[in-house]
Amino acid sequence: MTIFDPITYGATADGKTVDTKPIQAAIDAAYENGGGTVVFLSGKKYISGSLVIKSHVFLEMEAGSYLKASTVRITFRPDAWCILSCSDLVRYYGKMAW
Questions:
Q1: Is residue 49 part of a domain?
Q2: 21: CATH
Q3: C-alpha angle 40/29/10, rounded to 5°?
Q4: pLDDT at 8
Q5: What residues contact 95, with CB distance under 8 A and at least 6 apart?
Q6: Angle, alpha carbons 1-80-58 (nearest 5°)
Q7: pLDDT at 98 over 90
Q8: Which residues, other chains included, contact 28 with Cβ-Cβ below 8 Å and sequence gap of 6+?
Q9: pLDDT tens-digit map of 42-85
Q10: Which range marks the domain in which residue 86 is found?
């Protein structure tokens, strides 16, 4: 299976820059290639908003790599932000509470 590195697609992986677009580009390239593995390299710190994972695409985190959710709300799809928030409430509290 072919390996795709988000850094090849422009990710900085510095733990400060939001790398959503380069990570998504690596995912899209893997999908367009018929499948593959997007590898997050050891020692690198990636920050991302919403990602759309596609069929036959795998994500692999090497030991010592980090993939952290962005704190910038605009980097998330509007529907994903709600889904994440609502599922967190259900997961931690067992019921929906507003």
A1: yes
A2: 2.160.20.10
A3: 55
A4: 97
A5: 89
A6: 10
A7: no
A8: 54
A9: 999 999 988 888 889 999 999 999 998 887 766 666 655 444 44
A10: 3-93
Side-chain half-sphere CA neighbours of 84 within 13 A: 12
Chain centroid to CA 66? 10
Query: 14 with 45: CB under 8 angstroms?
Result: yes
> Taking the model in full, what pTM does it have?
0.77
pLDDT tops 90 at residue 3: yes
Whether 67 and 61 have beta carbons less than 8 Å apart is answered as: yes
Q: What is the pLDDT of residues 14-26, one digit of tens each?
A: 999 999 999 999 9
Q: What pLDDT, on the 0 to 100 scale, is given for residue 78?
A: 60
Is 49 in contact with 28 (CB distance < 8 Å)? no
Locus of tokens 């299976």 = 1
d(CA 44, CA 42): 6
